[in-house]
Automatic annotation (TrEMBL):
Sequence ranges assigned to domain UDP-galactopyranose mutase C-terminal in this UniProt record: 149-348
Protein name: UDP-galactopyranose mutase
UniProt-listed Enzyme Commission number(s): 5.4.99.9
GO terms under cellular component: cytosol
Lineage summary: Bacteria, Pseudomonadati, Pseudomonadota, Betaproteobacteria, Burkholderiales
Length: 375
């Protein structure tokens, strides 16, 4: 048996690295502060309705990355699932991402694709040549009316900041389409794990040599007990927040149950300020292959993350990135510790990106271990 590895955090980053290293013969100790694996992707069945719950909010797997897709499919069946989001604004229901139906319904038109593209170009603010903020990106490419209806208030509710302070990259996550395709994502592969994300992650950990310690924090001082530590917790927590706390948004969910079908769709966004929440998710629609008489829903509220809250979205304004840079500089001096994942690198990562990066991290570690043995 080779020397042992500590992995801090039992989400996708930790699970992928543990799996790869255990297969290479390492003994791996995984430490997780929460009583379950899966991180914020954790899923479990609701006791009352039997519905598979996305406990920390909705997660839809979508990717163009062949390796990440092939990898996750080794650990369980993925059912076909296409995310189609509805959005309510000014008392009307539309479809997102902005597509031909959204444009035609919103403006009361019957445009064809090329006409709609031309129409949106005419609405865009051409004085904005290189948009860097969320607001400029929206004003440049969809114009003020669509921006104010769908993005401005939702973004203020979601981020607690004006879109003029946020980077364009956040809006670039969403496509604009000039056809009737209302698939929220443009990726080649999209699906939902048949038994939920937690079952998938549990199977990644189910390799001889891996010991998962739930409800067990890891003390950074224990790093000397291990050959190497992969740390997927918040980077600032590893250093005792000595450079201050990196800011996150956290989410609160108001959970309610009903009979039958409450909203007819998995995700309905509330884009204006008639409601304080950003969206309502009806979890049984994330598993359309299952039948449930009753239903469970989450009303999602976003707010600033305080010390004891669960961090969700890294904010990453310029000042936050400077603070991150200070942590990255001290982290560089940390021998034998690799910082991974959304919290370890303070980035807004989709699941497929997290998994692909974790696979690459494991490859690099194994390759350098081989080189050292060869020397
Ligand atoms: N967004 C918005 N209105 C919507 C949906 C999204 O303004 O109806 C903005 C919001 O700022 C959000 C960003 O677009 O943070 C990215 O949306 P995405 O659906 O990728 O957010 P996530 O599901 O990761 O929260």
């Amino acid at each position: 048996m080779k020397k042992s590895i500590a992995i801090v955090g039992a989400g996708f980053s930790g699970a992928v690295i543990a799996n790869q290293l255990a297969h290479a013969g390492y003994a791996v100790d995984v430490f997780e502060t929460r009583p379950h694996v899966g991180g914020n992707c954790h899923s479990r069945r609701d006791d009352e309705t039997g519905v598979m719950l996305h406990v920390y909010g909705p997660h839809i797997f979508h990717t163009d990355n062949e390796r990440a897709w092939e990898f996750v499919n080794r650990f369980g069946e993925f059912k076909p699932y296409v995310n189609r989001v509805k959005a309510i604004t000014n008392g009307r229901v539309y479809t997102l991402p902005i597509n031909l139906l959204t444009i035609n319904q919103f403006f009361g038109k019957t445009l064809r694709p090329a006409q709609a593209a031309e129409f949106l170009t005419s609405l865009g603010d051409k004085t904005i040549t290189t948009p860097t903020t969320f607001e400029d990106q929206a004003l440049r490419f969809v114009g003020r009316d669509l921006y104010e209806a769908f993005f401005k208030t939702y973004t203020i509710k979601q981020w607690g900041l004006s879109p003029s302070e946020l980077p364009a990259s956040i809006l670039k996550r969403l496509p604009v389409r000039f056809n009737y395709d209302d698939n929220y994502f443009s990726h080649k592969y999209q699906g939902m794990p048949a038994d939920g994300y937690t079952a998938l992650v549990e199977r990644m950990f189910d390799v001889p040599g891996i010991a998962v310690h739930l409800s067990t924090p890891f003390d950074p001082a224990s790093k000397t007990d291990y050959q190497h530590v992969f740390y997927a917790g918040p980077i600032d927590a590893w250093f005792g927040h000595e450079e201050g706390r990196l800011p996150y948004r956290t989410l609160d969910f108001e959970v309610f149950r009903d009979t039958g079908d409450y909203q007819g769709n998995a995700v309905v966004n509330y884009c204006d300020d008639a409601e304080p929440y950003t969206r309502i998710t009806e979890h049984k629609h994330f598993s359309p292959w299952e039948q449930h008489e009753d239903t469970i829903l989450y009303k999602e509220y976003s707010r600033q993350c305080e010390d004891q809250d669960i961090p969700y979205y890294p904010i990453r304004l310029a000042r936050d990135k400077q603070q991150l840079e200070r942590y990255v500089n001290i982290a560089r001096q940390e021998a034998n510790v690799t910082f991974v994942g959304r919290l370890g690198t303070y980035r807004y990562l989709d699941m497929d990106v997290t998994i692909n990066e974790a696979l690459i991290t494991a490859d690099k570690f194994l390759a350098s271990a081989r080189d050292n043995t060869a020397m």
